[in-house]
Amino acid sequence: MKFLEKLDLSDRRNLAKMISLVESEKKLDQQQGDRLIQELFTLSQPAESQNSLIIAITGTPGAGKSTFINAFGSRLADQGLKIAVLAIDPSSRFSGGSILGDKTRMTELASHPNAFIRPIPSRAESLGGISPETEDILYVLKAAKFDYIFIETIGVGQNEGDVALLANKIIMMIHPLAGDELQAIKKGNLEYIDYLVINKFDGASKELALATADSYQSAFKNLGKKVFLTSAVEKTGFENILKEIHKPSATMHPPEQLLVRRLDTQLLKALLSLPFIAETFNTANKLSAPTRVKANFFIEQLKKLLTQQQNL
Predict the structure, then answer these.
(1) Region for residue 59 given its phi and psi (left: phi exceeds 0; alpha: psi -120 to 50; beta: otherwise)
(2) How many domains does the chain have?
(3) pLDDT tens for residues 172-219?
(4) In what order do the strands lie in the sheet with 169-174?
(5) Is residue 32 in a domain?
(6) Residue 223 belongs to a domain
(7) Model confidence over 222-274: pLDDT tens digits?
(8) Which domain holds residue 130?
(9) Is the same domain home to 298 and 197?
């Protein structure tokens, strides 16, 4: 029996179990997860047949990413649309733990019968604003036929651009800014985004939000990007975004980029599970040398080991 025949994609508990399966690091779970993702991948072909729209939300701390998704997602859910949210939280590089607290800022959406919210840890070894398993989880959510899938990334920075490999649209959120702070954000890595949203277009920050939008509008005009003003509190500004996000995207990313990023986070871990490579790593680590020299030593020794294996 095929793996999918035993699963009910419409049941939230089953959905959560499937996501836990593809996230698991246990060997047996990983084997089952591989089977599941392969079936879901086959089911999703051709990619153009998929109706789920994947929207990544990134932005500066305090910009209101979670409150924006809560308000925007609730509005869509009230229209009878199925909404899923992957809220990615940073993991500690020391303990590997994660707070997983973004869901607490989406109380309205979390209680909606048409919504499913899944907080997931980024994993300590992961860069790019997403977790290594984000792509796998998206296969599960697309198979469950969610109309909109939001990915809330860790934050904002040059590494956040990896989410562009998975999403149909990228929205960067910022709060109203002025002076040097505004200039600093402008110098950031903005080329991968589709839209800039200035949230908190309400109350005392309304004029500053307008000024921030004007400043960006002129900068984005030649790039074909748009700036929107929203208020998660007053639930305004969403209609213009909704009209825009369904327009086709011009940017396409080579599929090998996903494989490269996946290997970035998994290859070394897999290699170090082999005793003879782990021994080489430990030898490099014990050198009385800077990290650069240790790394080059390990790479050269690894090349020799692989060449020896090839010649056997």
Answers:
(1) left
(2) 2
(3) 888 887 555 555 555 455 677 888 898 889 888 899 888 888 888 776
(4) 115-121, 83-89, 148-152, 53-59, 169-174, 195-198, 226-229
(5) no
(6) yes
(7) 777 889 999 988 889 999 999 999 887 655 566 677 777 777 767 888 888 88
(8) 51-253
(9) no
